[in-house]
Amino acid sequence: MHEVDPTSQSNYLQIATKHITFDWTVDFDNKVIAGTATHELIAKIDEVSEVIFDTSYLHIEGVKVDGDAVQDFGLGPKHEVMGSALRVPLPRTSSAGSSILVEITYRTTANGIALQFLEKEQTQGKTFPFLFSQCQPIHARDLAPVQDTPSVKLTYGASVRSVLPVLLSARRISPPSDGPAHDGKIIGKDEVVYTYDQPTPIPSYLLAIAAGNLQYQSFQVPDGKQWKSGVWSEPELMDKSFWEFSRDTARFLAAAENLAGPYRFGVYDLLVLPPSFPYGGMENPCLTFVTPTLLAGDRSLTDVVIHELTHSWFGNGVTHAHASHFWLNEGWTTYVERVLLQIIHSPAHRGLSCVIGYKALLDALAFFEDKPKYQKLVIDFNYGEDPDSAYSRVPYDKGANFLLHIERTLGGLAVFLPYVKDYIATYMGHSITTETWKNHLYAYFQKNGSEGQIKALNSINWDAWLHQSGLRLPVEMEYDLTLANPANALADRWYESRHTTDISKLDFKSSDLDSLDANQRAVFLERLESYNESLPTGHLFHFDKLYSFSTTLSAEIRFRFYTLVLKSPAAMYFVQGAANWVIGADDTGVIKGRMKFCRPVFRAMFKVDPDLTISTFRQARTQFHPIAQSLIAQDLGLDLTGLRGSG
């Protein structure tokens, strides 16, 4: 019995897409993509009489089945979350195993969430417009009519006409990536046809497109590797982007292969997006999208790449069946990311990442105290419920801690990593549920383990980890604190000084931070935030004077500083600076579109000065991605429809 995806209206259990051929034109003037999507579908049962696709805000112009026009296709009523079901009757009843071609002519519209067209002023170069997509979790239906569920895995090919260079989540066929930009034609004027092929089956949420004034530079790849790697960015960011990522990306991917098996996608490129991109990264196959906030200038944030490339096995390879099992993507990826940190750096680096993740997890669990359903690993979504509403660190860090707990319960990495490899090999290319994963875990150790290991598995409180809510983890976890201890000690010194009224007697200096790396500095700030009592205003002014956190260019540090001071008696002194920073009305000049930063800062500002927060959001709302706009509005209790009407 298959679990039905609660966020799709398609009939993918009866007939499912095997391959899509896209023929698109990117129209920057009208901010649409127009063309055709031709589905090759395979019937899964006998007597299939129609195909149902998910769509959202698409204008459907025509449908053909096996080359013949169909007049009686129908677009259903608009569901607020799931969009409109496109029903295509089949001229003949299909039997199990038979194939059929359905060609849909359509164009996107401005109301969709998946595509963000940026004005040239919103780019780094400020000369050409820009387009990028974000289809996860259920927004591929804004880009094309698809069966928009991760339970369906498909290959695709595409021909895309554009006056600006085009990138897709697939392998470039022509023109060559390492050839002249835009095939040597005039960028912004001449139309070029870009062709791509994705021969490895992927879920629809990994369909991706970007187009803009983009250049490419390749990375050196270790000897013997069959894949290629490089970075794409606007020309103005290429030197920074190449320097930031060129040393580590290929060696990170090689290390992941040693742990998880061969990389299957042939190309691993990074694309540095404009600042409205709402995530740290998006694991689109062949082309990971990354936020420009990773360009720290010191390679201190490149470990995000470890997370994104690990998705090549967890998510892009072994995929969750639907949104209720999202933790199988993110929990596994975060767990293996931290194992790779141990392999690449040291066990202490794994421990430090766990410490940072645990703080983020506690914050997320507290945020959902009034929505305890979203504190669970396996979320029982109602039919048509928006999975974006549940987006948080819970699937990442509760999931990773769960797997760490299983690893320790069974006897450590030496026991657990062979199982991990078997899990990948067994389900690579498949979409699975939590129950399927758990059954395989038991089956593996029944075959390859001992009676004691089965008893160890039976000792785990599976229900508490998977299905129960709460503000804490079911088990008190311990981490390697080697790197966290110096940061915590400095924070403790500051906290112990809070009763010293004469600031001149404080024994702190700007060199306190010299021995702490960027992640340790983050832990230092988070430790200070965790105390029951805030530092006095005078202390915080002195604190910032010494360490210059309010002017640092590191977004990771700046946002933690603001979340610290906006909970303190000094909040009114810093709230305007936080407002300026989050919308780029400061020396950085760019909005902080990454939701890890903008959402908590807006929430913290709102508790200090609601009027300033709302006016700041109104002023810059359209600079943020539609997903971020919607969730920030929810956080602030605003009606986004009314805001759109007011400009």
Characterize the structure shown.
With 647 residues, the chain is of the alpha+beta class. The strands form 5 sheets. The chain has an 8-stranded mixed beta sheet with strand order 5-4-8-2-1-11-14-13. A hairpin with a 2-residue loop joins strand 4 and strand 5 (68-70). Helix 4 (303-310) packs across helix 5 (327-344) and helix 17 packs parallel to helix 19 (626-636).
Strand content: 15-25%
**Helical region count?**
20
Helix content: 25-40%
**Uncertain regions: pLDDT < 50 for 5+ in a row?**
none
Strand order of the largest sheet: 5-4-8-2-1-11-14-13
**Which structural class is indicated by helix and strand composition?**
alpha+beta
Average pLDDT confidence is: 96
Biggest beta sheet summary: 8 strands, mixed
**Oligomer type:** single chain
Rg result: 25 Å
Defining traits:
647 residues, alpha+beta, eight-stranded mixed beta sheet, five-stranded mixed beta sheet, 21% strand
What is the element layout, followed by pairings?
Elements: E1 15-27, E2 32-43, E3 48-55, E4 58-65, E5 68-70, E6 74-75, E7 84-94, E8 99-108, E9 115-118, E10 130-133, H1 140-143, E11 153-162, E12 166-168, E13 171-174, E14 192-203, E15 209-211, E16 215-218, E17 228-233, H2 238-246, H3 249-260, E18 267-272, E19 281-282, E20 287-290, H4 303-310, E21 319-320, H5 327-344, H6 347-367, H7 394-410, H8 413-427, E22 431-432, H9 434-448, H10 451-458, H11 462-467, H12 484-496, H13 518-530, H14 537-547, H15 555-565, H16 571-583, H17 595-608, H18 610-620, H19 626-636, H20 640-645
Parallel strand pairs: 1-11, 17-18, 18-20, 21-22
Antiparallel strand pairs: 1-2, 2-8, 3-7, 4-5, 4-8, 6-7, 9-10, 10-15, 11-14, 12-15, 13-14, 16-17, 19-20
Helix pairs in contact: 3-4, 4-5, 5-6, 5-7, 6-7, 6-13, 12-13, 13-15, 15-17, 16-17, 16-18, 17-18, 17-19
